[in-house]
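Re: weekly structure request thread

Next one in the queue (668 aa):
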Amino acid sequence: MSSALSLSASPTLIHKPQNISKHTPCPQTPLDFKVSKRKLLSSTVIGLGPNWVGLSAAQPTRAEPESPVASTSSRMSYSRFLQYLDEGVVKKVDLFENGTVAIAEIFNPTLGKIQRVKIQLPGLPQELLKKMKDKNVDFSAHPMDVNWGDAMLDLLGNLAFPLILLGSLLLRTSSRNSPGGPNLPFGLGRSKAKFQMEPNTGVTFDDVAGVDEAKQDFQEIVEFLKTPEKFSAVGAKIPKGVLLVGPPGTGKTLLAKAIAGEAGVPFFSLSGSEFIEMFVGVGASRVRDLFNKAKENSPCLIFIDEIDAVGRQRGTGIGGGNDEREQTLNQLLTEMDGFTGNTGVIVIAATNRPEILDAALLRPGRFDRQVSVGLPDIRGREDILKVHSNNKKLDKDVSLSVIAMRTPGFSGADLANLMNEAAILAGRRGKEKITMREIDDSIDRIVAGMEGTKMTDGKSKILVAYHEVGHAVCATLTPGHDPVQKVTLVPRGQARGLTWFIPGEDPTLISKMQLFARIVGGLGGRAAEEVIFGETEITTGAAGDLQQITQIARQMVTMYGMSEIGPWALTDPAVQSGDVVLRMLARNSMSEKLAEDIDQAVKQIIEKAYAIAKNHIRNNRDAIDKLVDVLLEKETLTGDEFRAILSEFTDISSIKIDRTSIREMIEA
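Done, posted below.
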């Protein structure tokens, strides 16, 4: 057995322990068990003196002659090691950890022994190797102990991202090579359109009312799809696209469902926002995929709802630039009417913002027809009410024509919601049928809001009563105003009281006298407060009225040319539009003198109307007091009850004939 502790230790030797006297020095013996290289490197000795601490072993040892080499090592600095190397006392060097750690056997002349020390090397410089060769130092390198489990985990961690990237490229290649497939991985470029080979939407043209002109255009398209030979015989071609334009809720999507149910051809439906993703190129790929599928199933229909999400004007900068949207729009333009064309595919699109669509999208050849789906007139509203009341139980006193008169400006969706709210209210009240009371309450809720807590008797309730009666009296006594439907003190929304009117005709064409009468009626509440309670007691209750009448008066001057300034359009249409960005970008070319004249004309109209309203209040004080007493008692007066009480004090029938005095006051 060697006197030095070899790094590749011999097999373990087991002996019985020797009885050693405590006065006898303990001989230095090598370890009798195998020690790993890592444990050997981690062992330390305190100092290089004769009193050193060796490795403790759990195995028994045997007595050996004293060895000239220490069995463990201490730490030594690299500079001290170089000094010993120059002195020639370094006998052997074992290199570990890729040459960063060395175990050196150094002769200690003081003890007359060879001691083992550990040195942290700064790499393995060539100068050190050359110096050890010059000093005839025996040195050797030893491989590291490898933990294969940790090594495999490190390898997999390093290869994870390249493997994912390679897999995505393979998927992209396979999808690109598939027939008609998109060229983006993970199905990003596939169209999200819902496809129906035999569409069964449950909606036909009989279920669409109030839009007769639009329905006629779509009936022609359905007939073209069913009997194309009748049109091709005279050289007619089927339209490539139809654009539905109109306010929200007017039935654009309902018309698309109707044409899908009537035509009986394959039908694709999707929204314009489904083309757009955060990745550039996905939208264009989805457009290609959609039209490839459509051409395979031609003749067919494609319905794109809210096309303004993808069809916005290019290069304007309005709303911020978007490369993805512009690329998608370019692909849509090419597919609808490009070099190859798309025979047998009809695109139907809907939007409520046609002014922001790109001009290339609106031209004939892409969208050959633009069908306007506006708000229904009184006859259209009655037809829509008939459709939505087919499955509801109505009382015999319910008149759909009266409901149609009371709902000017309601869209088809509003009327459907009205009938549903009335049915819910009737069920809540435990009734078997819907009566006019439920319908009136539903109209009030939709227009003005939910019913609030009723006011207690006091000064505020009396003031609100005079305010609402003032509206009703001034409107009734002014020629051209709509008749009163009811006056109520029941709060709804932000209003403490309300006065309702029934339009006599559809407000499609409104005369100057009618607009002026609305201003007089709107100022009736403030006039009643000032005349009856005094100027110091007027309240903030007329804030909404003042906003409305000011808007009407300004429109009379700037839009309708109904003032002394003349028949001019004095404002930019962009300023009058609802688009905030367009209003910001619009250039105001109005001079300061013209703006001052407009303000003066608006002021004159309102002042004349306010003077008339105060005259009505002063001349009919007794009738107003009587109406207020009845209103405070009943809280709601119908139009007939109101007119019956007012006719006791003044002749209402002669008001409509006496228009000369009103005309003179307007033109004064």
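Confidence is low (pLDDT under 50) at residues 1-72, 175-182, 657-662. DSSP finds 24 helices and 14 strands in the chain.
Next request, please.
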